[in-house]
Amino acid sequence: MLCFCERTCTKMCLIESNVEAFQVLTSDTVFSVPMNETYQLLGVDPKDIVTLEKYLQDYFTNILKKLKDLKAQSKQTDIFI
Fold first, then answer.
1. Rounded to whole angstroms, what are the CA distances from 61 to 3, 56, 65?
2. Rounded distance between C-alpha atoms, residue 20 and residue 79, angstroms
3. Distance between CA 42 and CA 49 in Å, rounded?
4. What's the number of domains the chain is made of?
5. Is the predicted pLDDT of residue 79 greater than 60, yes or no?
6. What is the residue range of 54's domain?
7. Using alpha carbons only, how large is the chain's radius of gyration in Å?
């Protein structure tokens, strides 16, 4: 974790930062909120938004396709999929 304090950072400063992060993550604060107002503010149609899970699935599917194509075009045998 980066420290942006004015003094030379010490182990104690890093420990304090980690404790603060832990307190935030273990609190009852809800970090998930409805996005309708944000979409409206930005002028975005919610149907145009994909979930992170779907995006990553598409991304890695495309990478695997490209790797398979490379293996087909390459004489190398050290590409494992």
1. 37, 8, 6
2. 43
3. 12
4. 1
5. no
6. 11-73
7. 22
Tell me the C-alpha to C-alpha distance, in Å, between residue 75 and each of 56, 61, 79: 29, 23, 10
14-71: per-residue pLDDT in tens? 667 777 877 777 888 777 788 899 999 999 999 999 989 999 999 999 999 988 888 7
Residue 21 counted as domain residue:
yes
Of the CA atoms within 13 Å of residue 65, those in its CB half-sphere come to 6
Residue 58, domain member (yes or no): yes
Token pair for residue 41? 């503010």
CA distance 6 to 58: 43
> Do the domain assignments include residue 61?
yes
Is 64 a member of any domain?
yes
